[in-house]
């Protein structure tokens, strides 16, 4: 049975109730499968969530250290800190909020660069992204030869920050009839700009706070744009 992916519908939800449908051991790790989850499994360049899963009576405490999506099923990989697991057990899921929020902001900041390039009429096609706190980048295919890289960096950064200042809300639109890798396809809109993406996104682009373009360089046949985001003080 496929895991219902609650984070696809509500990207800011960090708690949910659920039920254990399967579990097994893999070395010193326990793998837990639930009927539904808010834990984001690694994918699309975005790191997985961590957190905890607890039984309703509070006896079971399972520490989620890694989350993977395998053939439609989310594997919550971790260790039992207290109590015992059983199939059918009613549990509550708690995602580590700080890690999720940071990963979400970094991920959205990557798509913000796509959006900035489009507004600047720079004809680069988005490739892969690496939205990790250390060394985040997005790659593109297009022309870079003969361009003034320093000027370009400043121009893209300025555009990203100008877009952030517009206070743009994001929204999810599902394509009811289309499935991809066992997931319902959806488009996330940053204002009018649509992104087919399964990751988690900020609800308003101002949550990114600010964008910094650190480096633009050729990486094999791609153009790699390394970026950073502003610190969150709240
Ligand atoms: Zn994405």
TrEMBL record:
<dbReference type="GO" id="GO:0003676">
    <property type="term" value="F:nucleic acid binding"/>
</dbReference>
<dbReference type="InterPro" id="IPR018165">
    <property type="entry name" value="Ala-tRNA-synth_IIc_core"/>
</dbReference>
<dbReference type="GO" id="GO:0004813">
    <property type="term" value="F:alanine-tRNA ligase activity"/>
</dbReference>
<protein>
    <recommendedName>
        <fullName>Alanyl-transfer RNA synthetases family profile domain-containing protein</fullName>
    </recommendedName>
</protein>
<dbReference type="InterPro" id="IPR009000">
    <property type="entry name" value="Transl_B-barrel_sf"/>
</dbReference>
<dbReference type="InterPro" id="IPR018163">
    <property type="entry name" value="Thr/Ala-tRNA-synth_IIc_edit"/>
</dbReference>
<dbReference type="Pfam" id="PF01411">
    <property type="entry name" value="tRNA-synt_2c"/>
</dbReference>
<feature type="domain" description="Alanyl-transfer RNA synthetases family profile">
    <location>
        <begin position="1"/>
        <end position="120"/>
    </location>
</feature>
<dbReference type="GO" id="GO:0006419">
    <property type="term" value="P:alanyl-tRNA aminoacylation"/>
</dbReference>
<dbReference type="InterPro" id="IPR018164">
    <property type="entry name" value="Ala-tRNA-synth_IIc_N"/>
</dbReference>
<dbReference type="InterPro" id="IPR051335">
    <property type="entry name" value="Alanyl-tRNA_Editing_Enzymes"/>
</dbReference>
<dbReference type="GO" id="GO:0005524">
    <property type="term" value="F:ATP binding"/>
</dbReference>
